[in-house]
TrEMBL record:
GO molecular function, one term: sequence-specific DNA binding
Pfam families cross-referenced by the UniProt entry: HTH_18
InterPro entries: AraC_XylS_family_regulators, HTH_AraC
Keyword Lipid metabolism annotated: no
Record protein name field: AraC-type DNA-binding protein
Species the sequence originates in: Ekhidna lutea
Superkingdom as given in the UniProt entry: Bacteria
PROSITE patterns: HTH_ARAC_FAMILY_2
Location of the HTH araC/xylS-type domain: 154-255
The keyword Transcription regulation belongs to this UniProt entry's keyword annotation: yes
Length: 256
């Protein structure tokens, strides 16, 4: 996996970008943890298949096409064939609706951004030559295409700030009380702009806090980390892992 955060212009959409590389001699599966960000997926060498956890349907993403995913309620699996690279861009969720309104819906919150083989080839060439700056410029250009002036929803911005500051442990009641809005109004804002409820956003933020904290210090016990990340007990943690990733915490980290 290649991750490049620096070099991407901060003033626009991108918060993170990664290329997942095929290294084995057979199709390889990558599990994508939901992280409250919208995503753009671009197959760079060939086709790939995406399947949401809990869904019987899968989506084949073909080379030359650019795909946009709204923030996901659950994890997803990506299957890459030998030699295939895919570029996955993580997008600030406040831009999700603005982008989605311009796209044609396919299924399950996945949108086709259109076919642009020239753009895909240019991106592949930039990353093959480790030219992060060229890739960054191309990505910014791609994301900005057709974007109108964006009016920020301050309720969403303030809510997300509180949720991330507390790593998802804040209650929905604390959020809407601090913003002086009703619970129904807050949920309406979230569903309209992001496609998730405030509670779902908090749960996803919390499980990411747990996963990131464990990856930073694998010597720490899962039990100790469970309470540090705001879970009541291990059964609460396991329930979230089963829902979002269809596996237990132990099996998830072994597979990484």
């Amino acid at each position: 996996m290649y991750t490049q955060e620096k070099g991407l212009k901060e003033e626009l959409l991108i918060v993170d970008a990664m290329i997942k590389l095929k290294t084995a001699g057979k199709p390889q599966k990558f599990v994508m943890v939901p992280d409250n960000k919208a995503e753009i997926i671009i197959p760079l060498d060939g086709d790939l298949t995406l399947k949401s956890i809990g869904s019987v349907r899968s989506l084949k993403m073909t080379y030359g096409n650019i795909y946009f995913l709204m923030p996901r309620r659950r994890g997803a699996e990506i299957l890459l064939n030998e030699g295939v690279k895919s570029l996955i861009l993580k997008i600030n969720p406040i831009y999700a609706r603005s982008i989605a309104l311009k796209l044609k819906e396919l299924c399950n919150g996945v949108f086709a951004m259109g076919r642009s083989e020239m753009m895909v080839k240019a991106l592949k060439n930039a990353f093959d030559h480790n030219d992060v700056y060229q890739a960054s410029d191309l990505i910014q250009e791609m994301c900005a295409m057709g974007m109108e002036v964006f009016n920020y929803n301050m309720t969403i911005l303030d809510s997300i700030d509180q949720i991330r500051h507390t790593s998802g442990t804040i209650s929905v009641k604390e959020i809407y009380s601090s913003l002086n809005v009703s619970k129904s109004k807050l949920e309406q804002h979230f569903n309209k702009e992001i496609g998730l409820t405030p509670k779902e956003f908090c749960r996803i933020e919390k499980i990411n806090c747990f996963i990131n904290s464990y990856n930073e210090n694998e010597e720490q016990s899962l039990t100790e980390l469970t309470y540090q990340c705001g879970y009541y007990d291990q059964s609460h943690l396991i329930k979230d892992f089963k829902y979002f990733l269809d596996t237990s915490p132990k099996k998830f980290f072994i597979s990484q």
